[in-house]
Write a structure and sequence with these properties.
By secondary structure, the chain is of the alpha/beta class. It is 42% helix and 13% strand.
């Protein structure tokens, strides 16, 4: 990958964010690492520069729940250079845990703002330059609840489902522009969100608390596994794939190129509605 490429990575100070930033740096990409804490972002950038001295790494801070700060992030990030060639939307919050009827509405709405609206706005701000160059990559991080119900985590699940459908929709709009957009399901990692599930306890996270305890004990999916997938999607090798949700754990993404011709017109790795005939039932039309 050309060293001239620049990636904006949000949530860069978390476990997955650091792994992704390091992977992209190893692949020859310059970086703008963003986090809510300016101090944490600066420390992350310093670590990356020490590890990859040939890479240009800048640190930026932003509260993604505030539209004005998101726009200001882009103004600062591009103040000394062009718009990013690669956008990786990692930053997210889990939001209120527990029954939806008991969720504080402000926190519920804020979760959608950070996990769905901010990534969409960042894409809207970066896409025109990508389209103008005829090359670009947008990579969105999915999460639990995007492909099936996730009780007790309604805000997070709704936001991530929306982010995947946004990814699919934008892929159609971007067809033929040289810009791809995909989503990554990183798998269950031992991160801050796991700690939040444990702290919520079985009373609020009744359906996931036991599995969270087991993961904390046995270890989760290494963030480097998802980082490798992100690196591949950001590369020239993945120029043919767009609008898909790929699992870093379950999908053979490093061998998919041999099936590239089978993706056209297919719904493989996308969200869809299951109808009776999909389950061998004949209920009439539909």
């Amino acid at each position: 990958m050309s060293a001239a490429r620049t990636a904006l990575v949000t949530g860069a100070t978390g476990g997955l964010g650091r792994a992704v930033a390091s992977q992209l740096a190893a692949d020859g990409v310059d970086l703008v690492v963003a986090a809510r804490s300016a101090e944490a972002a600066a420390a992350c950038a310093a670590d990356l520069r020490a590890q990859w001295p040939d890479r240009h790494v800048r640190a930026e801070s932003c509260d993604l729940s505030r539209e004005g700060e998101v726009r200001e992030l882009m103004r600062r990030a591009t103040g000394s250079g062009p718009m990013p060639d690669i956008l990786v939307n990692i930053a997210a919050v889990q939001g209120p845990i527990g029954a939806f009827v008991d969720a504080p509405w402000g926190e519920w709405a804020r979760t959608l703002g950070i996990d769905l609206l901010a990534p969409a706005l960042l894409a809207q701000l970066t896409l025109p330059a990508m389209i103008g160059r005829g090359w670009g990559r947008v990579i969105n991080i999915s999460g639990g609840g995007a492909t099936g119900p996730r009780p007790d985590f309604s805000a997070y699940a709704v936001a991530k489902t929306g982010l995947v459908r946004f990814t699919e929709t934008m892929a159609h709009e971007l067809s033929g522009t040289g810009v791809t957009i995909n989503a990554v399901a990183p798998g269950p990692m031992n991160t801050r969100m796991l700690d939040e599930v444990l702290q919520a306890g079985p009373a609020k996270a009744s359906r996931e608390h036991a599995s969270a305890l087991a993961r904390a004990r046995d270890g989760g999916v290494p963030p480097e596994q998802a980082a490798r997938l992100v690196g591949w999607l950001a590369s020239e090798e993945a120029a043919w794939i767009s609008g898909r949700l790929l699992s870093a754990v379950w999908d053979p993404w490093d061998r998919l190129a041999v099936h590239a011709g089978e993706f056209d017109g297919s719904d493989i790795y996308t969200l869809r509605r299951i109808v009776p005939k999909d389950r061998g039932r004949d209920w009439g039309n539909g």
